[in-house]
């Protein structure tokens, strides 16, 4: 009985690890897509324009927030 419970726990853990890896890959892909879109916008607006600078700062703040959230969720 104890071995069966232990195996079930291990199976649940493996599924959670696989799910986390898949979620991480999806997040990284979404970030990559967003970065490409931002680069296109900045390029179209002109690299030195006020809006480009604001967009870039907003992007950096958003990425920092996402990284902090990701680190927090991994530590729980």
From TrEMBL:
GO molecular function, one term: microtubule binding
One GO CC annotation: spindle
Primary site of residence: cytoplasm
Keywords, comma-separated and alphabetical: Coiled coil, Cytoplasm, Cytoskeleton, Microtubule
Organism superkingdom: Eukaryota
Coiled-coil blocks: 10-37
Subcellular location: Cytoplasm, Cytoskeleton
Family in the record: Belongs to the MAP65/ASE1 family.
Protein name: Uncharacterized protein
């Amino acid at each position: 009985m104890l071995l069966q419970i232990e195996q079930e726990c291990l199976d649940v853990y493996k599924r959670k690890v696989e799910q986390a890896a898949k979620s991480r890959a999806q997040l990284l892909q979404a970030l990559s897509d967003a970065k490409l879109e931002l680069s296109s916008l900045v390029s179209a607006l002109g690299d030195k324009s006020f809006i480009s600078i604001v967009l870039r700062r907003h992007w950096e703040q958003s990425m920092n927030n996402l990284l902090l959230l990701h680190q927090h969720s991994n530590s729980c």
